[in-house]
Amino acid sequence: MELVTVGSVAFDAIETPFGKSDKIVGGAGTYISIASSFFKKKSGIVSVVGGDFPKDFLAMLDMRGIDQQGLQIKEDEKSFFWSGKYHNDMNTRDTLVTELNVLEKFDPVLPDEYKNPEFLMLGNLAPDVQLKVIEQCERKPQIIAMDTMNFWMDIAMDDLKKVLKKVDVLTINDEEARQLSGEYSLVKAAQKILRMGPEFLVIKKGEHGALLFNNENEVFFAPALPLEEVFDPTGAGDSFAGGFIGHLASTKDISFENMKRAVIVGSAMASFCVEQFGTERLQSVTQEDFDERVREFVNLTQFDISLV
User: Fold this and answer.
1) What is the pLDDT along the chain (308 residues), one digit of tens a residue?
2) Residue 170 φ then ψ, to 5°
3) Which residues contact 252 (CB under 8 A, 6 or more apart)?
4) pTM higher than the cut 0.90
């Protein structure tokens, strides 16, 4: 398997200033896999769901080339469920309900076909779970990318640092970068985090874009696309990660120049994600949609200037 994604496949219930959803399918693994499938037509997912998870959604994943040998189905248990309410600024939210259910004792098992992936994407899970996945790989993937969050920094920092030593790319938001590094300046934060192990660091800044750093002091900034309406930011960061790793896996080019392109691709996928609740918009993106969205990013950043 060229690309393997490990992450939650779950249910969400979301309320934003623009409306609310009933229980819908979400989860980091879900968003990453759907976004990456636009670029990589064959990938595998490692996760766990309960018997309550809709079979038609799994069929949709299969149609998108997302192999499910690594998806455990616990028929007598319930899937992970999260409910949250976003504030008016759409950048902050309150968690209303968290039910771990099958995720509480999730023990990832890589099928034989998944043990030599070229690209491995570790969604936001407990660091010890991420480490178990890495240890099951029979050889080092070309790229191991991971996401994490401040919750794991609070309760599992030692395990998190162990994982960081084994990954190539870390994607986190600006608040998490500051907490992980203890630095307010994102440049200083990046320098400190890169010394922990990763070769590349992506710092996501939501509506303010994303920064890409490497351990050779190169920096790239991609703006976020100004959108008329943002209905649901849930999954935007994971959609970014899916577009990012999907582009790398499809091009097999891990140079800094291509990482820049991957950041733009990830930003484009994130911009689609927020336009509707859940994964609905991601599932309907066409090649024409994507090409036009990337052109918008190019037009947003391209300019001529004469220096005197």
Assistant:
1) 899 999 999 999 999 988 889 899 999 999 999 999 999 888 999 999 999 999 999 999 999 999 999 999 999 999 999 999 998 877 788 999 999 999 999 999 999 999 999 999 999 999 999 999 999 999 999 999 999 999 999 999 999 999 999 999 999 999 999 999 999 999 999 999 999 999 999 999 988 899 999 999 999 999 888 887 788 899 999 999 999 999 999 999 999 999 999 999 999 999 999 999 999 999 999 999 999 999 999 888 877 777 77
2) -115, 130
3) 118, 142
4) yes
